[in-house]
Amino acid sequence: MRFFIELSYNGKAYHGWQNQPNAISVQEVLEKALSTLLNTDIAIMGAGRTDAGVHASQMFAHFDYDGDFKSIDIVYKLNSFLPKDIAVADVFEVQSDIHARFHATERTYHYKISTSKNVFDYDFAYQVQLPIDVKAMNAACKILFRYKDFQCFSKSNTDVKTYNCDIKEAYWTQQNEQLIFTITADRFLRNMVRAIVGTMLNVGLGKMKAETLHAIIASKNRGEAGFSVPAHGLYLVKIAYPETIRVHS
Q1: Exactly one of 51, 68, 97, 149 is catalytic; which is it?
Q2: CB 109 within 8 A of CB 236
Q3: How high is the pLDDT of residue 249?
Q4: I need a surface site. Which of 21, 114, 153, 237 has the fewest CB within 10 A?
């Protein structure tokens, strides 16, 4: 049987989601906890990769298991095996052919910028204490909807068949002394959100006009776009699936 795990994690201590040969990952820690709890080797497949230091308030992964854990509170037990910076919210059965990565229909990220020096969120938001023109950045966001090919925001030398992404929403909001960028798409390229935010910040700080985004996207050149903002301000916040994936007992 195939099961989905819904989880969240603070990415500070991890070298990203995916298993690494010489560094600790969220996937590795979760696999070890699950294998220990179920007393068998369990391999999990995540809905996507997050880079080192990136956080997730909602992540999904799937695993196969033919035993029966209905007699135990799997969520409670699994959380007791996991460190304080990884939390499981749910474990549920899905159709046997459902894949956590390939059946996701859209993903949403937040990027957080603290506009004043804050001793409590320096690990969780990028600190920028300069005047930022949010209206100009939202004008730049509207330009993104006119394009599909976002090679200019992709890390170079990535093994992808296409650079096309269907962006569904992109906007900035201000909550007290924090700016939050929200972006939703069917898929994202490696480093894409952080490169978009860096480019948007160049607009917000008056270093370039929003209209320059047209030429940057048309260039398909990562060197034309803005800098990549730090990982610690980035959060994977939502992954959507078709309603039909669940097995209802």
Answers
A1: 51
A2: yes
A3: 63
A4: 21
Global confidence as pTM: 0.93
Structure token pair of residue 72: 């135990």
Tell me the domains of the chain and their CATH numbers.
2-103 (3.30.70.580), 106-237 (3.30.70.660)
Over the stretch 105-119, which tens digit does the pLDDT of each residue have? Answer: 999 999 999 999 989
Distance, CA of 210 to CA of 199 (rounded, Å): 9
Q: What is the DSSP string of 10-47?
A: -GGGSS-SS--SSS--HHHHHHHHHHHHHTS----EES
SS3 146: coil
> How far apart (Å, rounded) are the C-alpha atoms in residues 42 and 61?
12
51 flagged as catalytic: yes
Block residue for tokens 């569904």: 168
Cβ–Cβ contacts within 10 Å for residue 154, how many? Answer: 21
